[in-house]
Design brief:
This protein has 379 residues and is α/β, with parallel strands linked by helices. It is built from 14 helices and 10 strands. Helix 13 (323-357) packs antiparallel against helix 14. The relative contact order is 0.07.
Length: 379
């Protein structure tokens, strides 16, 4: 979206497309920018590159994004485009081009960074490889479209910013009177009562935290307590539980269960290596079994199961009781009720229809009752 604004400022006509789409020959593009997501989706990137190279052989192709930045050598050889690593500095001053992406999924929101990067060095995260520095951005408010319904803040660790920046951001967001979503979790090790007080004033339907490793034990509980004391109900808190990364089932289960006991929502985040290229096969940490990885996710992803069963009970008897299956069961019951209602009302529908056709038939009780209610009458 920033690239679109940048190129428009240079006088270019810009069009955004998803995947592979023949946009015709008028006008023929001179430049095609291809972004990439996670490494295990690299084949989609190669497919798009081949498609547009064949369709527009004279156009110059550019490749960037997560996969291109994390695995530039692989992208260079397999996609055949020299990748750009990290962010495109030329685009940073520009707001997203909301007009070009009008009608796209998520286009009812504004998107903004108030910081870039993260000072942490978590080995499971690729943030520092994409943007090694950690900086604050002063003019971020100019990137918000005030006609949008909500604001999505893309900062990777705003809690690590100087407190005066955090305070300024929260105050300005609170004044917008719009729903605010911080995509990434607030750092539980850095949240104080002052942070929580400011967060409580912003209209955030959901606040995300993370309990990534056992080293955060104690910090996460303290952060949740701070937020609760500031007036934030625990039902608005979601805690990511990273698993399948140098832990085991006991470790992950403790972290998830501890959060569940505190009354916050648990969201399991299954780890994949940053250089994982296989979309069909699952990475399994040496300390895990494949079935445990699958079951841990399904149990904690379900909204219902942790409230009805222990993990072992769910595995043995209630494994089919997921949120999706519960909804289907409820829908099935509703369907049964509708069928029962139809059976009960059908005779009376017949009665009304009969009377409309032949009002005198009401006097011929015996024939009328049999025709409307069957041989057994009202029994």
């Amino acid at each position: 979206m920033k690239i679109a604004s940048w190129r428009k400022s240079l006088g270019d006509q810009v069009r955004a497309v998803h995947g592979t789409l023949d946009i015709g020959k008028s006008p023929v593009p001179d430049r095609i920018y291809i972004t990439s997501l996670f490494t295990y989706r690299w084949q989609e990137v190669r497919k798009a590159a081949l498609f547009y190279r064949n369709l527009y052989p004279d156009a110059e192709l550019f490749l960037g994004g997560i996969y291109a930045s994390l695995m530039p050598d692989h992208a260079r050889t397999q996609v055949g485009i020299e990748p750009h690593v990290g962010i495109l500095e030329e685009t940073e001053p520009f707001p997203p081009d909301y007009e070009t992406f009008k009608g796209w999924p998520g286009s009812s929101s504004s998107y903004v960074y108030t910081t870039r990067g993260c000072p942490r060095k978590c080995k499971f995260c690729g943030s520092r490889k994409i943007f090694p520095a950690f900086i604050t951005i002063d003019d971020w408010m100019s990137h918000i479209d005030l006609l949008k319904d909500s604001v999505v803040v893309l900062d990777e660790n705003i809690t690590a910013a100087p407190f005066d920046h955090f305070e300024s951001v929260m105050r300005q967001l609170s004044e917008l009177s719009r729903d605010i979503l911080f995509c990434n979790g607030f750092d539980c090790r850095l949240i104080t009562a002052d942070h929580a007080r400011l967060m409580a004033k912003a209209r955030m339907p959901q606040i995300r935290l993370a309990f990534d490793t056992i080293r955060q034990d104690g910090h996460i509980q303290r952060a949740i307590d701070c937020l609760a004391k500031a007036g934030i109900h625990k039902r608005h808190l979601l805690v990511y539980i990273l698993y399948n990364f140098k832990d085991d089932m006991e470790d992950a289960m403790y972290r998830a269960t501890e959060m569940h006991k505190l009354g916050v929502r648990v969201y399991p985040m299954r780890y994949k290596p940053l250089d994982w290229l296989d979309p069909k096969n699952m990475f399994v940490d040496p300390n895990w079994e494949k079935q445990d990885v699958i079951d841990f996710y399904n149990y904690w992803k379900s909204f219902v199961a942790p409230h009805r069963f222990t993990f072992d009970e769910w595995r043995s008897t209630g494994k089919n009781w997921t949120h999706s299956n519960r909804r289907k069961k409820l829908m099935g019951r509703t369907s049964e009720r509708r069928t029962s209602k139809k059976i009960l009302t059908e005779p009376f529908d017949n009665l009304i229809s009969k009377l409309k056709k032949d009002p005198q038939s009401i006097f011929n009780d015996n024939v009328f009752v049999k025709e409307c209610f069957g041989e057994k009458g009202f029994e």
